[in-house]
Amino acid sequence: MMAMNLQYTPSNASHPAHCLSWLWFLSCVMVFQEGFRVDLLVEDTVIVELKSVEKLAPVHSKQVLTYLRLMNLHIGLLINFGAPTLKEGLRRIAN
Fold first, then answer.
1. Rounded to whole angstroms, how far apart are CA atoms 60 and 7?
2. Are 67 and 41 in contact (CB under 8 A)?
3. pLDDT per residue over 61-74, tens digit each?
4. What distance in Å separates the CA atoms of residue 81 and residue 75, rounded to the nearest whole number?
């Protein structure tokens, strides 16, 4: 893969619309080698995300849902080992 050296200079941004198109261009060019790390991937079909917190926050479910969408999968499990019982700490998330 060929690397590109892109620099933003004030001469590139003569107009606000030009700034937006420049940012759009940069977002299309950038490649992230490690965007996220799934805790467990079972048989290339189920994502398992492990947490150990007192109470799950909405961001934890959204994290699993984002992983599902990025990997084009349908089922994910969110397991919180900080819950009093496994039943209370287990959440199934579907895309």
1. 35
2. no
3. 999 999 999 999 99
4. 20
Whether the model pTM is above 0.70:
no
Beta-bridge partner residues of 92 = 77
| Residues 71/88, Cβ–Cβ less than 8 Å | no
In which residue are the tokens 């690397």 written? 3
Residue 66 makes CB contacts below 8 A (sequence gap 6+) with 36
62: in domain: yes
- On whether residue 15 sits in a domain, the answer given is no
> Which domain does 87 fall in, by range?
40-94
Residue 24 resides in a domain: no
Establish if 65 belongs to a structural domain.
yes
